[in-house]
Specification:
Elements: H1 3-12, E1 21-26, H2 27-30, E2 39-45, E3 60-64, H3 77-81, H4 89-100, E4 108-113, H5 119-131, H6 145-157
Parallel strand pairs: 1-4, 2-3, 2-4
Length: about 160
Amino acid sequence: MNNRIKDIFAAIHRPPVTGKRVLALSEGDAERIPLLPGVAMISIVNARSAPAILSSHEFLLRLRFSDVDFLAREITDRAKKKLGDAMTKEQALEVHQFVRGLPDSIHTLIVHCGAGISRSGGVASALNAIYGFEIEEQRLKRANQSVKKLLIDVAKTIGH
C-alpha cells in the first residue's frame, strides 16, 4: 500500500473537525479505495475516456470533462483543442446537487481525476470555499482555477 493510500485511510478514520472533508486523489488511488461507511465519491475522467473502475459506492457521481484551465495566462495549443471538453455549467450544477443531497452520515468526499491534482483539486478547493469542507491545502496548489471559478459562480446562481 503506497503512502498516499495510507494517508487517505488515516484521514477517513479520523473525524473531520468541520464536519465534512474533501480529499483529492488520482484515479489509480481512487480505484484502490474500498467501500467505506461515511465516504462518497466524485469520479472525473477525461471527456473521451472510459470510466474509472471503482467500488459500487452508494453515493457516486461520475463526470467526464478534460483538464482545461481557460483562466491560465497562456493556453497551449493542446489545451485549446480541448476547450469544448472543459467542465460545463451543467456539470457544475450536478456537483452542487450531489453535494447538497449527501446525507449527514457522509463525512468524507473523495474527488478523483487522472493525476489527482488539477480537476479534483479545483473541485475540492471550490467545495472548501462554498461549503466549508476541510481540505488538504498543500495538495491543492495546482488546482484548476477554471473548475473552481465555475463551481463558485454556479453556487451563486443557486443561492449558496
